[in-house]
Amino acid sequence: MKLTYGIPAALAALVVLACAPLFVGPYWLGLLIGLAGYVTLASAWALFSGRTGYVSLATVAFFGIGAYTVAVLSEAMPYPVVLLVAAGIGLGVALLVGLATLRLEGVYFVVFSFGLAELVRQLVTWYETSINGTLGRYIFLDFGPEHIYWQLLALAVVTLLLTWWIGRSRLGLALKVIADDETVASHIGINIAWTKITLFAVSAVIMTLVGAIQSPRWTYVEPAIVFNPTVSFMTLIMALFGGAGRLWGPALGAIPLFLLFEWLSANFPDHYSILLGLLFIIIVFLLPRGVVGLFDDRFGTRRAEVQPAASGEGAGK
Amino acid sequence: MMTATRRHALRYFGASAIVFATAAPFAATAQDRTSVKIGYAISKTGGNAGGAGITTLPNYQLWIKDVNDAGGLELPDGTRLPIEVIEYDDRSSAEEVVRSIERLATQDEVDFMLPPWGTGFNLAVAPLFDRFGYPQLAVSAVTDKAPEFVKRWDKSFWLLGGGHDYTDALAKVLSTASSEGTINSKVAMISVADGFGIDLVTAARPAMKDAGIEVVYDVTYPAGTTDFTSILNDAAASGADSFVAFSYPPETFALTQQAQIANFNPKVLYLGVGTGFPMYGANNGANAEGIMSLGGIDYSNEENMAYRKRHEELTGQAPDLWGSVITYSSLQMLQEAIKRRGLDRDAVSDELSNGTFQTASGEIKLEDNQLRTLWLTGQWQDGEYVAVAPADREGAKAPKLPKAAWQGQ
C-alpha cells in the first residue's frame, strides 16, 4: 500500500486547490468551479451507478432540485439551513424513487431515470405556473465565485472520502457481492434493496447539494435552465471515461474531459456538438472500463480485489 | 467581416501548469491598437437558437459589417479602428453562458461585450458584466424588474420594457374599443406555461381589471401544444369579443390556422411572439389582416426602412417587427457612445445613460437606463405590421377594429 505517500500528497494537493482562488484570475476560477462541480457529480454518480451497474440519467433531476430549493428559499432562511433543506428534499425524492424503481433492471432503469428528470421539471413548471403564477426566480445571494468554489471543493472532498469509506465498510462489501451475483447475495443474507437504496440516496443528496451550491452563479433560475439534460450526459460520460468503479476514476475522467470540452467550445464553437457526440462513441467503444481500467490492463496494477465497473455495455448484467 | 480567428486565449491548455501566470492581465495601450475587440456569447445551438437566430445574431452580424465597411469604429480623435469579433456558442446552457462571459472578459480581454439572447441569460450574465465593468445593453429581455436591476447593476440597460407595459397598452386598446361600442368588455385569454406567457398573463389580469375589461376565460397551456380545438371552442363559447394568446411562435402559427378551421372570428385577435415575423404576414396573406400582437414598427421612419433593407440583403431574411430594430439601435448607441467618449467603459456607460442617440428606431434617450419609448402593440394592416400603441406617440396608426372575418381559402 502506497497510502503513506498518498495521504500527504492528497493533502498537499488539497491545500494548493483551496488556495487557488487567491492566485488565479476570474476565468480560471470559473473553470475550477466547473471542474469541482463535475468531479463531485461524476464521483457521486459512480458511487451508486459504478458499484451497482444501474446507469442513471437522473443526475440533473437532483441537481435541479437543489438549485430550485435555493431559488425558492434563499430569502426566507439562512443559507446553511437552505442547504440542509435542499439535502433533505433530495433525500426524500431519492428514497421515494428508489423504493419504487430499483427493481427495474438494465435499460428500463436508464429510461426511467431519464424520464424522472423530465417529470421533476414538468412538476416544477406546473407548480410555478399554476399555483405560484410565476416561472423564473431570482437568487440574490452575496457570494463571490470563490465562496462557491470552496463549498464545491469541500463537497468534492467529502464525496471522495465517503466513497473511500464505503469501499471499506460492510456496505461496500455487500455491494461487491451484489454486483457479482445478486442471487448469492440474497442467499447469504444481504438486504439487496436496502443496500441499493442507501447508496442511491447518498449519491442523490450529493448531486442535490452540487446544484444548490452552484445556483447562485446564475442569478436567475427557471426549469429549462436548471433541468438541462446535458448535465446528466456529461456526468455519465466523465465517470465512464475515468472508470466508474474506482475511487479516483470519475475525478480522473472529469478533469481532462471538462478541460477538453472547454477547449473545444472555445476553439470550435460551431462544431462542438458533433465533436462531443464522436467523443461519446469513442469512449464507450474503446474505453469500456475507463482510463483507470486501461492503465490497469497495461501495467497490471490492478489489485486482487476486483471492483465491478459500470461499463458502456449497459447496466444490470 | 473579420470573424474570430484569434481564439488564442486557450492555446495553453496543454500546459495548464502555468495557470498562475495568467493572474497578471496586460492591456494593450492605445498606440499599438489595431482593432477594437467585441465579444459575445449567443445560443447558436439548443433551445434558444431559434429566437437568437432571428432577433439577435443577424443584427450583430449586420452591425459589425456596417461598421467595418465604413472603416471601423470612430473614436473621439476621428480615427477609426476595425471591429475584431470573438464569438462563442453558449449552447443554450446557463453555466456555459456564464463561463463564456468570464472568458471574454478575462482571457480574451475584449473591449466591449454584447449581451446573450433571452431574459434568463441576460440576468445570468448581469452580475458578471457588472463585476468586470462592462455596459450591458440587454434587449431580448422583457422584465418588470428593470428599475430594481438598474439599482443593482448601474451599467445595465434594459431596452424592451416589461410585461406590464405591453399588457397595459393592450388593455387600453380594448377598453377604448369597448367604450366606443366596437366590442363588448369581455376577453378570453390563454398563455403558454413558460417564462414569457406567465409574465404577460400575470401582468394582464390586473391590467384588464383596471381597464374595466372582464376576463371570462383564462387558461394556461403547456409549451409545445399543437391542438387548440377545445381551447378555441371554449373561448368562442365564453361570449368574449376579444381573444388574447400570450403564445410562442409554433403556437402562434397553429392558433392562426386552427381559428380559421374552427371559423372562430373574434373581433379582436391578439397573438404572441411570431405574429411580428415577416414570414407570418407572408404565409397568412389577407387573413393576417387585423391580427394584433406585441411590437410593431413605424413604416414612415426612413432610417428603420433603410435598416430593414440592409438586413434583408445581408441575411436573406427581413428582421422581425418587434425586437430586431431595437437590437440594432442598441448597437448604434454603443457605436455613437464610443465615438463621443472613446473606449473607456465607464465613460461609455455614462454616455449611454445620459446621452441622446439617433438610431434606426428614432431618437433614443434612456430614462433610468431603460428605453421607455417603445411600440407596445402592433397590428397587421394592408400587409404591414404597423404600430398602434401607444396611440399618442408620433407614427402610431389607429387600430382597425373589429377584425374582419376569415376569408375562405
Automatic annotation (TrEMBL), chain A:
Q: Which GO terms describe its molecular function?
A: branched-chain amino acid transmembrane transporter activity
In its keyword annotation, does this UniProt entry include Cell membrane?
Answer: yes
Protein name, per record: Amino acid/amide ABC transporter membrane protein 2, HAAT family
- State its location(s): Cell membrane
Q: Which Pfam families match?
A: BPD_transp_2 (PF02653)
Q: Can you quote a single GO CC term?
A: plasma membrane
What membrane topology does the UniProt entry give?
Answer: Multi-pass membrane protein
State which residue ranges cross the membrane. 28-48, 55-73, 79-100, 107-127, 147-167, 188-213, 225-242, 247-266, 272-295
InterPro entries linked: ABC_transp_permease (IPR001851), LivM-like (IPR043428)
What is the phylogenetic placement of the source species in the record? Bacteria, Pseudomonadati, Pseudomonadota, Alphaproteobacteria, Rhodobacterales
State the organism of origin.
Answer: Puniceibacterium sediminis
Keyword annotations for this protein?
Cell membrane, Membrane, Transmembrane, Transmembrane helix
From TrEMBL, chain B:
Domain of life, per lineage: Bacteria
Q: Does the keyword Signal apply?
A: yes
Q: Which UniProt keywords apply?
A: Amino-acid transport, Signal, Transport
Cleavable signal peptide: 1-30
State the SUPFAM superfamilies in the record. Answer: Periplasmic binding protein-like I
Leucine-binding protein domain location: 35-383
Q: What is this protein called?
A: Amino acid/amide ABC transporter substrate-binding protein, HAAT family
Q: Which species does this protein come from?
A: Puniceibacterium sediminis
